[in-house]
Batch of 2 targets.
Target 1
Amino acid sequence: MNLALRDIRHHRGRFVLTSIGLGLLLGVVISMGGIYRGLVADAVAILQSTGADLWVVQQNTNGPFAESSRIQEDLRYRIAAVPGVAQAAPLSFQSVQIERRGKPFRFFLIGYDYRPGLGLGGPPALIAGRPIAQKHYQMVVSQAMNMPLGDTIHLGLHDYTVVGITGKLVSSSGDPVAFVTLADAQDIQFKQENNAIRNDRARLAAWVAARPGLGAGQERLLKASLAGLTESTHTVNTVVARLAPGAELGRVQAVIGRWNHLRALSTEEQVEILTKGMIEKARMQLGMFRVILLVISGVIISLIIYTSTLDKIRVIATLKLIGSQNRVIVAMILQQSLLMGLIAYFTGYVLVRLTHKNFPRRIELVPLDLQVLFVIVLVICTVSSLVGIRKAMRVDPAEALGG
Amino acid sequence: MFAVEIAHLTKVYGQGETKVVAIADASFQVVPGELIAILGPSGSGKTTLLTSIGLINEPSQGQVVIDGQLLADDGWLPGVDLKRVRREKLGFIFQHHNLIPFLTALENVMVALEINGHSRAAAKARALELLAALNLSRRPHNYPAALSGGEAQRVAIARALANRPKVILADEPTAALDTENGKNVMAMLKQIAVENRSAVLVVTHDQRMVEGFDRIFEVRDGRIVKESKGWKVEGLAAAGA
């Protein structure tokens, strides 16, 4: 006869409610693990969707995601000429926050070379619409932006129309991703308003006028050169490259690294920077919370099992008096604790499984994490039951006697 | 062979100035089928005597023999499995029925059988047989809370009888019952002693309940001060009972 199940059957309401309550706590633990995995997945999603082997960025920087990197767009041709490089393409990244329908609307904008066969890092498989087919004013948005095909958005100086929708792609900070052509992205990021351009030109004219020794030709040439520099938008954040089959990554990195103003990062290094650098603190924070919540779960289970044992002191004394083996009593307490853990775990799991798509950030439920947590929960339940078992083992059978 | 034999049984609590002699030099034998009452006022040591015979309270001195097996000789004998002796040879009935509240009447009887190694089917058959014998066949699936005091005590008796014990130890089995139910329980114990050939030792402070017992021991201050025989309770000290 299973005494644990009999006891639970008799107090099923209390037991189930307690287990569900504990399940909510474990649900938070599961979701926190999922959030961490989601952070990693989000962080590398753009990297992976790009399909590049090499990320060339401004020297002494950690690339376009970790910090600011600005290099000239035409470097793509130099990089493409390096032996071992099969293809090179510029990319531009920027976080954009605008007001949309009265609410702040934040997303991550990627500019890429839209021309077929020339670009890298464009939108991954589309689920609706079509790719960008012209140089200006079209965009592909990720599903997470909740923008239908044909919708428009005003960025910089122009309106952009949604022509395609890709999957739920987000940046490392969890913002949904949108794609425009590189030219549009450069305009949005670098192009000044007309008034600002006029103002700069006036300042330049005043500066040249203050130098009377300049000839008319020199003056014209200087104005044109300086205006070209200040008004140019041909800047990108990175040039990504795909290596030819059999090419040695280290050798290509070394060649590009010899150019004084550039740094060539492999995709693995980028992943390392993103996961170890950018989300390490978040990982530790979530890890700490998980540990704290698991400790709390353990304490709660201990308290429940202990008070449940206290409620059964007379039952335990009676069992001992009629000659019950210790294993019968230990099994009763341990099985209840384990069953509580099991119900709580599966309650938490089902809860997260049903709701994880509604969370604002991605929750990635990794089977290995769930299995490890399951084992941890069983260990916690076993350890927690020791308090009750210790109490039960100390019960004197004589306590069954008398009033 | 005696069902119970105690010789110079002494139980001392504490030491030095706090030393309390709960039982002092108690000796008697009980044959199978004999019905014994242990009478005495509160604190006289009668429950301590019962728990020492019931292998719960380790005697400080003296011997305890159950069904011919020496179990204590100035303390428990090493290597003796007291729990095994309790579940195989002893049956306990308590002041309050002490039924397990989360088990039905049937399961309360079955649990004593299952922990003694009976199969589930065998335990169920024996439990149903006992409940029927105690006129409880209509309520096997009721929980203790749904039983009357008398019914619950009868289930407790069925549990005590489950493993056909050589000795039944009852601690104030009628204290929580009204007079009529108390008398019924005592009548059952007498019947068990006769039919099962079990030695039945009943601790009580109510001398009205011990009529018909084979022998009555009166305990005061840890000593058996009087032993009476016969069906009629006569000659007992008026005080204390």
Target 2
Amino acid sequence: MLKHMLTGALFAGVLAGLFAALLQYFLVQPLIVLSERYESGELVHFAGVAGAEAAHDHDHDHDAADAAAATDATAEPAAEGSEAHSHHHDEASGETPPLTRNMLTIGFLALVYVGYGLLLVAGFAVAAQFGIQVTARQGLLWGLAGFAAFQLAPAIGLAPELPGTPAADLTARQIWWVGTAIATAGGLALIGYGRSLIAVVAGAILLALPHVIGAPEPAAFGGVVPPELAASFAARALAVGLASWALLGWLAGRFWSQDEAST
Amino acid sequence: MHGMKVAPSGVTARRDTMTTSTSLSAAKSGSALMAILFVTVLGASSVFLTGLAQSQTLHDAAHDVRHTTGFPCH
């Protein structure tokens, strides 16, 4: 049984991780790299330069006017945010060669999706102890629930953030993140498989609890990255997560049901 | 969870636990429990290493993944 669990999770996790890496490379990575040019100060939000290409479209008067407006608009938040900001700066990853950096991303995406896959399969095995047989179709639902637990619900309080975004204390955010993931997974399991009204109500309470408590929030807003960029990043990060988790759940359920049939 | 599963009066247990559990031998469910625990710890460790460990080296290496998968970063 252990071997079946491990091989199924490994195959499903690696495939889903590679799929996530492909999506990340085309949809998300360009936004991260662009945001780091704002974080390093190479590009300045409100200076009339939205990106390298956009700079060419601006005429001179326009640029000057934008820059003048920018000094007023950014002076205050920049001063406020700068203190909280300095330690957010990430020199190391900015200096890593792109190839090494992308290889590390592929490797760690495979690792984290194998981790998610192992947790899913452990859940399948618990379900089997209760006589519930998980197939590819049910695995897809488990994958969507996993996405909700590990990405969507934590994103309600802690939106996926680009480099250069101020945030509250790291440890406090990690505690809230882990608590939210566990509460959401437990809540969905109770609603999905609970047979009594009490189980469903308890599940709903578990789903709501982290957001009633609330996530740790930064003392002040002072991001250097344009909001358009941050919004696009958050939406795409969640979309990549949804697609990859759906594939992971389906594959894990498929391998799991094959394993069960052959033993 | 384990206690619920091997409850001696399985037939009179609440409806949601009354499944095939009574047909499982104690030995089989014992090894299944160990396998589930092992896989859970392994999976949680992988997720922790990638997303949550506050080591500078790990943080830098997994940096982009942490941002995209929505882990708290920095």
